[in-house]
Fold this sequence. Notes:
Elements: H1 2-14, H2 25-30, H3 35-56, H4 68-90, H5 92-98, H6 109-117, H7 124-154, E1 156-157, H8 161-165, E2 174-175, H9 184-187, H10 189-211, H11 218-225
Antiparallel strand pairs: 1-2
Helix pairs in contact: 1-7, 3-4, 3-6, 3-7, 4-5, 4-6, 6-7, 7-10
Amino acid sequence: MNQFNEIAHNGLWKQNPGVVQLLGLCPTLAVTTSAVNGLSLGFATALVMAASNGAVSPVRRFVPSEIRVPVFIMVIAALVTVIDLTIHGFAEPLHKVLGIFIPLIVVNCIVLARVESFAAKNPPAPAIWDGFMMGIGLTLVLGLLGGIREIIGKGTLFSGLDLAFGASFKTYILTIIPNYQGFLLAILPPGAFLGLAGLIAARNWAELRKTSAPTLPTDVTSSALKPAN
Length: 229
C-alpha cells in the first residue's frame, strides 16, 4: 500500500505532469478554454495512460529494446483509436470541440514517458495505477485551468456540459458572474500561458511554504515527552 500511496502522491502533486514536469503543454494550453473541455480531454488521457501501462507491463520482457519505442507507440495508437471512436459515437458534439487533440494523445509525451520510465520496469498493477494517477493529475490541472479561464473569460462554469451528456444538462451550467461582458484575453492563447503560470507559481509557493515551516528541535521535543518529576 505504501507503494500505491507514493504513486498517487507523485501523480497528483510531487511529479504532476501539468505543473511540475510540464509535459503535454499543447493540449494544456489549447483545449482549456472551458472546464468541460479540459476535464474531458484529461480523463481520456488518463484512460489511455492506464490502459497503455497495463498493456505494456506484462510484455515488457518480450519486447527487444531496439524496437520498444515503435511497439509502445503502436499500443498507444490502438488504445487512442478506441477512445476516439467511443467519444465520437457517444458524444459527437464534444468530439468536434476537442477535434485533433484526441488523436494527438498518441504522440503526447506524457503517455510515452510513463510507459518508457515506469510500465516497462514494473509489474502490471503498479503500472496501471501509475498511468491512471498521472492522468488524473493532468486532468486536475486541465480542469482547474479551464475553469479559471472560463470564469474570467465568460463568467460561467461548466459551459458545454450538454456537449458531453446531452441537452438536458444545460441546466447545470453555472453563471458565476451575472450580466458579465466577458474578458477575451482569458480565452485567447495568452490567457492559457498566464493561467498556467499562475498554477505553477501557486504550487511552488505551497511547496516552499511547507518546506520552510518551523520545526521544533529534537531535544525540545524529547524533553516535552518526558514525564514531570
